[in-house]
Design a protein that fits this description.
Layout: E1 6-11, H1 21-29, E2 34-37, H2 44-54, H3 64-78, E3 81-84, H4 91-105, E4 109-115, H5 120-124, E5 149-154, H6 159-166, E6 171-173, H7 181-191, H8 201-217, E7 246-251, E8 256-260, H9 270-277, E9 287-288, E10 293-295, E11 300-303, E12 309-312, E13 315-317, E14 322-342, H10 346-363, E15 370-374, H11 391-394, E16 399-408, H12 411-416, H13 424-427, E17 432-436, E18 441-453, H14 454-457, E19 462-468
Length: 470
């Protein structure tokens, strides 16, 4: 493909279950050429694994089908192409479901499927030394969870997305790729930038600019004033009920402009862009991705007004020789119950009832790893960082709600946790406000982050093109 002067790309979803209606405005009024949609938050693969356990044909983000049934007629009319990671643990399953839905409508499209991020067999291989797959933060050996692992996926970069678009795909469905790579792929495809390990300095800086763009757009409305937390300023973000998702225009030299579709709510300005820029960034001088390591030290955000922020100055360094992996392992079961007590003495009642539950757990010798307790409305948002009121004020509260979460290795114990509570309604402290969750239990999946040599992963990556014809 001959490189263009600039490319416009719009944000799709920011997580599985996000709202796709704002994408309509980007397609109809935003002059975009691509939509990139991020369906996989860090823990979404655990949700998809539970789906796959119930039905082997699942394991993908099922919102991709109704989303594209809504958007595809608008995209097809304007030549807009779509990239997403909704394939999750089963990219082929997602493509097949979409293909069947398109077939029923008599629509035609070229759907590319990217596979190769599944590295579970490598993680489970007892011949691989523990130290090679140690927990990324704690350093624990993988042998602690190896036999309980149920999925393991490497974060791929932009290369297979570029290949899919170069092959003429209208829709690209991947599994686990780095969030920003969903956006960097269309940018590289359109502008002809070079990917690889042996970059020239100019390519690295351009890729770093593209990574900034992807990072700013990967969280849908959070990049255009949604979830804006500046005290005294969030109230000035207009018309969030009709928020417009961010759009980026990127030029050959890497200069980028962040904006949104005209006539939509939200705000794109220095403060909203800066907030998203720093989101989930541990080291602004070394924000790592499979394609480039971004240094934000010289980044410049120029607020041009009218929901337009120009971005220059990103610096890039060559990526490392390892890729991040997110793996999941079976980690027992949980059960949770929430109930409340009202004035007078609401706090003391809550403490007395909690002590009764702990006493039952001990006397019945119910095995459990943890009983986690929090008080919604008092400390559930920030946990130990939230100071409780002084003792003399606690019993002046109108009501105190208590949430108890039991973590146990035994499913039967989790299933029976709710039965410890109902009798408290008539035989415990007075003025119970009600119980919630008495019969809700679930299997826990723990997350195991680690690193893997990229030369074990990238040769296994494949791009398949499916033709959907009426």
């Amino acid at each position: 493909m001959k490189p263009t002067t600039s490319v416009r790309i719009g944000a799709g979803l920011g997580f599985y279950g996000d709202n796709w209606e704002p994408v309509v405005a980007s397609i109809e009024r935003g002059a975009v050429q691509f939509i990139a949609s991020d369906h996989l938050a860090e823990l979404t693969l655990a949700i998809l694994q539970k789906d796959r356990q119930r039905d082997a044909s699942l394991g993908y983000a099922r919102d991709v089908v109704p989303m594209l049934m809504r958007l595809w007629p608008l995209m097809r009319e304007r030549g807009v192409r779509f990239v997403c990671n909704a394939g999750g643990l089963n990219p082929r399953g997602a493509a097949q479901a979409l293909r069947e839905a398109f077939d029923r409508k008599g629509w035609s499209a070229r759907i590319a499927v990217v596979t190769g991020d599944d590295v579970l067999s490598h993680l489970q291989d007892p011949e691989v030394p523990d130290a090679d797959l140690a927990h990324l933060f704690s350093g624990e050996p993988v042998s602690r969870v190896r036999e309980r692992l149920v999925f393991g996926n490497a974060y791929l970069g932009a290369r297979p997305i570029v290949d899919a678009l170069d092959a003429g795909a209208d829709i690209v469905i991947t599994g686990r790729v780095a969030d920003a790579a969903l956006f960097l792929g269309p940018i590289v495809h359109s502008l002809g930038w070079r990917l690889g390990h042996q970059h020239q300095a100019g390519d690295l800086d351009k890729l770093a600019q593209g990574l900034v763009v992807g990072h700013l757009l990967e969280c849908s409305g959070q990049g255009s004033g949604g979830n804006f937390g500046a005290q005294g300023h969030w109230q000035q973000i207009p018309d969030l009920a009709r928020i417009g998702y961010p759009i980026a225009e990127v030029w050959q030299d890497g200069t980028a402009l962040i904006t949104k579709a005209p006539g939509t709510g939200g705000r794109v300005n220095f403060d909203t862009v800066r907030q998203q820029l720093l989101y989930e960034v541990h080291d602004p001088h070394a924000y790592r991705s499979p394609d480039v390591v971004l240094d934000m030290g010289d980044l410049h955000l120029h607020d041009e007004g009218h929901d337009r922020v120009r971005i220059t100055g990103a610096r890039g360094h060559a990526p490392g020789d390892r890729l991040k992996v997110v793996a999941g392992f079976r980690d027992g079961y949980k059960a949770e119950v929430t109930w409340g007590f009202s004035w007078p003495d609401a706090w003391d009642k809550a403490q007395a009832a909690q002590a009764m539950i702990r006493q039952q757990l001990q006397e019945k010798r119910l095995p459990h790893d943890e009983l986690y307790v929090e008080y919604p409305g008092l400390n559930s948002a920030h946990g130990p960082l939230t100071p409780l009121p002084p003792p003399e004020q606690l019993n002046q509260l109108n009501e105190v709600w208590t949430r108890l979460v039991l973590r146990t290795p035994e499913k039967a114990v989790a299933d029976g946790f709710g039965r410890l509570f109902p009798w408290i309604a008539l035989s415990g402290p007075a003025y119970t406000c009600g119980f919630n969750g008495l019969h809700h239990t679930g299997e826990l999946l723990g997350i195991w982050p680690t690193l893997i040599p990229r030369d074990l992963v990238e040769p296994m990556v494949r791009v398949e093109l499916l033709e959907v014809t009426p």
